[in-house]
Amino acid sequence: MPHIKFRTAIGLIAIILLIGAACGKKATNTSNTTNTTTTNVTTTTDAVESNAVEMINTAFNPATIKVRKGTTVTWTNNDSLVHTVTGTDSGPRSDLLNPGDKYTFTFDQVGTFAYNCTPHPFMKGTVQVTE
Asked: Which member of 21, 37, 65, 116 has the lowest number of beta carbons within 10 Å of its beta carbon?
């Protein structure tokens, strides 16, 4: 009978090993996950046909616009800082614009008018005026 006991012991060890292997499996994460999508933004130098420019995140948006002669352009300060619209040669010239302020300028001449923000000279914009 010792032979039967040995087989029983081997069987029990095999069962224990199988149960241990089954319990040792890696847990599967079933929690909710959030997928993140990255969008690449391409900046272009093409002029946007618009008569509105927003000041936001210390930048003019859009940076370049194209309008017809006689168009009034409106700049709106949607930033948390004060800004200006200051033509580099001629064109618009605003006072300091507090957050929420607007400034308008009518372009009566054909040409390209560059401007910047006096307190933040790295903020640059252009208005292209056509017939």
From this structure: 37
60-61 and 52-55 strand pairing: antiparallel
- pTM (whole model) above 0.90: no
DSSP-derived secondary structure for 14-68: HHHHHHHHHHTSPPP--S--------------SPEE-SEEEE-SSSEESSEEEEE
Give the residue carrying structure tokens 């401007």: 115
Domains of the chain: residue spans and CATH: 48-130 (2.60.40.420)
Using one digit for the tens of pLDDT, what is the confidence trace for 63-98? Answer: 999 999 999 999 999 999 999 999 998 899 999 999
Residue 106 CA to residue 90 CA, distance in Å, equals 12
Give the model confidence (pLDDT) of 53-72 as tens digits: 999 999 999 999 999 999 99
DSSP line for 60-97: EESSEEEEETTPEEEEEE-SSS-B--EESSSS-B---B
CB-CB contact of 112 with 97 (8 Å): no
